[in-house]
Every structure is written in C-alpha cells, then in structure tokens.
Amino acid sequence: APAAKATKRAKAATQAPAGITSPDRVIDPDSGITKGQLAAYYAEVAEPLLAWLSRRPVSLVRCPQGRAKHCFFQKHDSGSFGDHVHHVPIREKDGSTEPYLYVDDAEGMMACVQMGTIEFHGWGSMIEAVEAPDRMVFDLDPDEGLGFEAVKHAAFLLRDELAGLGLKSWPLLSGGKGVHVVVPLDASAEWPAVKDFASRFSRALAAAHPDRFTANMKKVERKGRIFLDWLRNQRGATAVLPYSARARANTPVAAPVTWEELRDVETPARWSVLDGAELVKRAGSKALRGWAVARQALPAA
Ligand code: ATP
Ligand code: MN
Ligand code: MN
C-alpha cells in the first residue's frame, strides 16, 4: 500500500490539470517544481482556497517564466484571462473607476494559474461590499536575523491583547518569513475605522514593548525588532490568501494553523505545494474547521 500511495502522489504531482500549457516549465529553480505541479496543487486545494479567494478583489503575483525571472503584481483586468476571471469596478482615489480582478470558482482560479500566477493576494473585503472589510490582518515582519521564535512570541502576544479587547484571532503562516494574525470581522465598519483601529492598536503595542516591536514601516526602525505591519488594513491593500503558494524558494504556501499548533511550528514555510493532500486533509480537520470564521465587531474606541 505505501508503494501505491507513493505512486499516486507522484502521479498527482506530475499530471497537470486540463488547460495548463507548458506543464514541464520549471517555475522554481531551487526545487525544480514545475508549472504543472503548481497547477496540480491549486486543483487539489481549490475548495479551501476558494473559501478565501472567491468574490474578493485580488492581486496576482504572476511569474510567467518562473520565479527566477520577472514577476509582477497584477490587480486590474488585462482582458487576457478569459471568461472565468471577472472584474468589479472600484473607485480609485482620484475619482476614476478601475476594473479589479476577482474569481468565484475553480475555473477562474485555474485560468489565473495558466497565466503564470503563483500567488493570490486578496482585499480584506468582498466584492459585494468593498468598503466594509470582513477581515483585519496584522502582518508580523521580523528584522533580518530575528528567529521565528520571536515572531511566534509576538503572535501570541497579539492574540492575547486582541482577546483582551474581545476579538478572536487566528494565525496564518505566511510561507515567507512571518506570521499573519487574522481577525475576522462582521463588516459593520468601513475601511477608515478599521485602519484607525489597526494603527492605534499597533502603535500602543509598540509603545508598550519598544524593545520588541515597531509600528513604523521604516526599515531603520526595525533593528532587531518586529514590524507590526498594520498597513494591510487600509483600503486597496492586500494580504496573501490562505493556501496561496509563494514565489519563493521551494514554493512554500501560506498555511492556516491553530494557536496550539503554532507553538511547535519551526518555520513559516512549513508546507509547500507538494503538500496539497495534507493541507486539504488539515483544512477539513476538526481543529481547523472554523479557522478565522467569526462575526465580530471592532470594540468601541
Ligand atoms: P513575509 O512573511 O515574508 O513578510 P508576506 O506575505 O507577509 O510574507 P510582505 O512583504 O510582508 O510579505 O507583504 C505583506 C503583504 O503586502 C503581501 O502579502 C502582499 O499582499 C502585500 N504586498 C507586498 N508587496 C506588494 C506590492 N509590491 N504590491 C502590492 N501588494 C504588495
Ligand atoms: Mn509580512
Ligand atoms: Mn509587510
């Protein structure tokens, strides 16, 4: 049986879903992972990914020639994605309206992958109510050289401070260097109020623990500290979506974990696109069902 299982896994990893061209193109030179393997991963995790990706304005990180070559963020419809990738008109600061990308099914998601997408980043709001976020994200960005233990410690501290304000939160391994602390919201407040809360919360935490945190995005302020990146919580900002792959060495993925699990995790790149089956199984597990799902309002000032 183990042999059959291994064969099945190898097959799943090499068989590209229909409609994916150049499946043998290596997209990550560090691991040799191909576009076909990436597409197979996305086909596998479609359901848990779409729970976050569907009907949200998205920014795609596209690397048509692989992550070692040119990659770019794309947020507007270029008209080349086909019928399954939709656009939602969103007002810009200057008053004009631009078509932002969104998908609402696996076909749309795979069309993005076919176009060289490696990463999916989402707004904190849904297309039906772009002005009212249903999610706040604290992106913990450690200074170079700070270990993951320090990031974990910071994440637990945020969890406790948020809980003190009546807010439940969940940790997301970014797949890169940090953790995102995700706070689901009931979409009863609009962007300015959410940004204001995130800013005040982060500044207060940095003031209370100046040795460990900064709420200032300037790199020089980060020296040996963790930047509490609250700027993910302003209108137009995005954060990597749960189950998105990352265009980084060995193609890790952004992975939901429980607070209990976080204690033992040793790296934010714990899972990669080769772990699709395990991630799907985890997503359906009792511990992770209901991850970052809660209807909660920001506390009154
Ligand atoms: P890490 O844990 O390594 O920091 P990350 O996903 O948190 O991974 P950041 O550089 O901290 O990476 O960026 C946070 C988020 O900001 C990203 O997930 C992305 O959605 C958004 N972002 C970063 N750079 C850009 C950019 N050039 N254009 C648009 N959005 C960006
Ligand atoms: Mn980050
Ligand atoms: Mn950041």
UniProtKB/TrEMBL annotation:
Domain of life (superkingdom): Bacteria
GO MF term (any one): DNA ligase (ATP) activity
Region (Disordered): 7-28
Keyword Repressor recorded: no
Keywords annotated in UniProt: ATP-binding, DNA damage, DNA recombination, DNA repair, DNA-binding, DNA-directed DNA polymerase, Exonuclease, Hydrolase, Ligase, Manganese, Metal-binding, Multifunctional enzyme, Nuclease, Nucleotide-binding, Nucleotidyltransferase, Transferase
Protein's UniProt keywords contain Iron: no
Protein name, UniProt field: DNA ligase (ATP)
Organism: Sphingomonas naphthae
Coverage span on the entire protein: 532 to 832 of 832
